[in-house]
Description:
By secondary structure, this protein is an alpha/beta fold. The protein folds into 2 domains: 6-183, Rossmann fold (3-Layer(aba) Sandwich); 193-407. It is 34% helix and 18% strand. It has helices at 12-30, 47-60, 72-83, 87-96, 138-145, 167-176, 197-206, 231-241, 300-303, 343-349, 354-376, 390-407, and strands at residues 35-40, 65-69, 97-99, 114-119, 146-153, 180-183, 224-228, 247-251, 271-273, 276-278, 297-298, 308-315, 319-322, 325-328, 379-387. The strands form 4 sheets. Strands 3-2-4-5-1-6 form a 6-stranded parallel beta sheet, sandwiched between helices. It has a 5-stranded parallel beta sheet with strand order 7-15-12-8-11, with helices on both faces. α1 (12-30) packs across α2. The protein is globular and about 60 Å long.
Amino acid sequence: MLRGNEEFRLLDAQRTAYKVIEGHLLDAQRKEDRKVFIVRGGPGTGKSVIAMRLLSILYKRGVPSFFVAPNQAFRATLADHLSRSGRDSQRLAKMLLQSSYRFHDADWSKDRTHDVLIVDEAHRLKKGNVYQYKGENMVADMVRAAKVAIFFIDETQQVSWNDCGSIAEIRAQAAQLGVAVTEMPELQAQFRCNGSTGYLNWIDDVLQIRPTGNFENWGDGQYEFAVFDKPEELYRELQRKNTDNRARLIAGYAWDWPAAGRQRGSGQTHVSAGQLSLPWNYTGSNWATAEDGIGQVGCIHTCQGVEFDWIGVLIGDDLVYKDGKVIGVPGKRAKTDKSLHGSKAALESVRGDQISTAKVEARIQNIIRNTYKVLMSRGQKGCLVWCADTPLREYLRERVKLASTIGGVDDIPVRKAAEPDTPYQERK
C-alpha cells in the first residue's frame, strides 16, 4: 500500500518507535481485553508516518482497521500520496481513511466493534455542538468503537475551543468504559525543520507557549528562518523557492473566510496585506498538492498534519507583542472564525470568579498561540514570516539573534523591505 512513497519511509528513530508500538499492538490483539494506546510527539516527530505504517501492516494481516483523522484536508493529502502507488491504493485510501465525525452513530455492540482504530491528530478531536457532528465527544467515540484504539497526540496543537483531545480526556473516557491505557514513550527525534528540534523548542519559547532553553543549535545554517517587512517580498521569495511545488503560503484567521467566491476562476481575493492580495485555498480541490497551490493561501485547517519544503506565514493582527509579552487578540480574528466559538459564553459563565476567568483567558491565549505554532512548523527547509504587528516583527528578529549568538552563528537571514513593487495579485 505504501510502496514507492518516500513520505511514509521510516527513519531510524521512527523505526524503533514503530517496532515498540507494533509489539504492544500485536500483544493486545492476542488478548480479549480492550486496550488504548497513547503516543505523544511534537510536530515532525513522525506520528503520521508511524500511524500509516501500522495501518499498512494491519491491512496486510487482514485485521479490520481504520486510520482516523478529524481534518478532511489532511486525509485528502494522505489519499493523494497513496494514489501514487496506483489505482488500487487510491481505492484503499478512500476505504481506510475515515473521518472522526462518523463513529458516533455506530452500533457499539461487540460484534460491530472495529478491531483497531488508529487516530492521528487526536488533539483535534471535538466535543459538543460542532458543525456536522451529531455526537457528544469524539474521544469517547473512538474508545467505545474499537477493541484497540491508538491515539497519536500533541496537546500543544489544539487550535479550537471545541478541541477536546488530551491525554487526560483519553484516560478519563477509557476509565469510564473500563479500558486499560498504555502510554508509549514520547517521540523525540525530529524529522521536520531539517531535523532541528532546537527550532521547534525556539517556537514554543518565543510564542510563550512553554519555556524552553534547548534551542541553541537550530541557527547553524541547516534551517532558514527569515522575517520580512513586507508580505509581497515574502511571497516573491516563496515563489522563487517553489521549484517543485513544495512551497506554500499560509495565514492565521485575521482575514474573513467567505463561504462563497472561493471557486477556482472566481477571480476573488480574500487575504490582503500590504501589496499582496490572494484568495484563500479553492473549494473542491486539495490545496496542499494542487499545481497552482502557491497562488492560494492555506489556513490552519488545510495545513495541519501536512508538511512542505518551504512555508510562508502571514501573522495577522490577532497576535501582537507588548510589554514583553506575546498576546493573542481574539477581537482581531475574522468574524467568520469559529475556532473561539464558545469562549465568550465561557467567560460570561465565570464572571466575578478571578481564578476561573484567568483559566478561560489562558485557554484563549493558548489557542491563538498554538495556531501560529502549527503554521510556523510546517516547513522542512525553512519558514518565512511577516507580522502585521511591527513590535512582534522586531521581537522575532531579536530572538533570532539570540538563538544565533548561543549557537555561535554570525548570520541568520533577516529580510529587510525592498523598494515598493507592483501589487501582487493571484498569478494566472
